[in-house]
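Researcher: Sequence recovery benchmark, item below. Answer with residues only.
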C-alpha cells in the first residue's frame, strides 16, 4: 500500500498542484491508515473494503481522537480511494459513502485592536533579531498571509516601492498589499537586521540566527514569547494574527470579496465567517451597553 500512497502524493503535488500543507496532512493520515490495516494483516489496497474503512473510522473515535481529526482523515481517505478507482487500482470507490463526524465549528480566536498593538510593540528593538521579529509580525498582521507563506517569502517577492508582496501556495499566486507601518519595519530589517543574519546570497526574506530559513515551529515560539510579554492570556498562535487581520478589516467596512482575495480563500463561504463574527460582536456590544438592550 505504501507504493500507492507515494504515487497519490506525487499526483497531488505534480498534477493537482495541491498546497504543501494539504499534501503533508494527507500523507500523514494515509500512513496511519496503512499501519492500522497492516496490523489487521491487510497489505494490499485491493483487500480493503468499505466496511473496513468504517471500522477504521470507529477505531479512531474509540481512541479518543477529536472529531476534527477524524473528519480530516475521512477527507484524505476519500481523495485517496477516489484516485485509486480513477487510476484503475480498484474497481469501485469504496470511500464514496464514508461519513465524517460532525465537527462543531467554534469561532477562531481573535485579538482586540489593543491586544494587537501591545503584541506588535513588544517586538520593537534595535538588535537584528528584534528588527526581524518586528518585520515578521507587522507583515503578518498587515497582510493576513499564512505562516507557511510568510516563512517562504523570498527577498524578490517584496515590492517596496508599490508596497505589496507576492504569495505562492502550490501553483496559485496572489498579490497582497501592505501599509506604511509594515513597510517601515521591513526597511529597517532589510537595511540593519538581515545583513547581520542572512548568509551571503541567501534568498529567503526572513532567516533564523544561523542565516537559514525560519521554521514554522521557530516562528510559533516567537509569537508565544511576545504574547506572554504583552500580557495576552487568551489563545495566541500565528494564525490568530491572520484571523485578527480579517476581522479588523471587515469590522472597518472592507468588502468580503477583497478580503477573500487577500487571504487566498478559494470559496467566499470561508470568508463569510468573519462577517458573522463581526455581527455577533456588534450584537454583544449593543446588548451590553444600550439602556434598553
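Model:
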Amino acid at each position: 500500500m505504501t507504493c500507492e500512497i507515494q504515487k497519490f502524493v506525487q499526483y497531488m503535488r505534480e498534477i493537482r498542484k495541491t498546497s504543501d500543507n494539504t499534501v503533508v496532512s494527507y500523507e500523514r493520515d494515509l500512513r496511519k491508515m496503512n499501519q492500522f490495516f497492516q496490523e489487521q494483516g491487510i497489505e494490499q489496497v485491493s483487500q480493503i473494503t468499505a466496511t473496513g474503512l468504517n471500522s477504521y473510522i470507529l477505531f479512531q473515535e474509540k481512541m479518543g481522537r477529536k472529531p476534527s481529526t477524524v473528519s480530516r482523515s475521512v477527507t484524505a481517505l476519500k481523495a485517496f480511494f477516489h484516485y485509486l478507482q480513477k487510476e484503475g487500482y480498484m474497481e469501485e470507490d469504496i470511500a464514496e459513502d464514508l461519513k465524517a463526524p460532525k465537527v462543531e465549528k467554534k469561532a477562531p480566536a481573535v485579538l482586540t485592536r489593543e491586544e494587537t498593538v501591545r503584541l506588535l510593540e513588544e517586538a520593537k528593538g534595535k538588535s537584528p533579531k528584534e528588527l526581524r521579529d518586528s518585520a515578521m509580525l507587522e507583515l503578518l498582521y498587515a497582510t493576513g498571509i499564512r505562516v507557511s507563506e510568510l516563512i517562504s517569502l523570498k527577498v524578490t517577492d517584496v515590492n517596496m516601492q508599490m508596497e505589496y508582496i507576492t504569495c505562492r501556495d502550490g501553483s496559485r499566486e496572489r498579490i497582497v498589499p501592505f501599509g506604511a507601518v509594515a513597510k517601515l519595519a521591513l526597511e529597517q530589517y532589510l537595511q540593519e537586521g538581515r545583513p547581520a543574519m542572512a548568509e551571503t546570497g541567501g534568498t529567503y526574506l526572513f532567516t533564523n540566527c544561523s542565516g537559514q530559513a525560519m521554521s514554522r515551529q521557530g516562528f510559533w515560539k516567537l509569537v508565544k514569547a511576545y504574547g506572554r510579554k504583552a500580557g495576552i492570556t487568551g489563545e495566541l498562535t500565528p494564525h490568530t494574527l491572520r484571523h485578527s487581520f480579517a476581522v479588523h478589516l471587515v469590522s472597518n467596512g472592507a468588502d468580503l470579496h477583497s478580503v477573500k482575495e487577500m487571504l487566498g480563500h478559494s470559496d467566499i463561504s470561508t470568508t463569510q465567517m468573519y462577517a458573522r463574527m463581526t455581527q455577533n460582536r456588534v450584537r454583544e456590544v449593543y446588548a451590553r451597553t444600550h439602556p434598553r438592550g
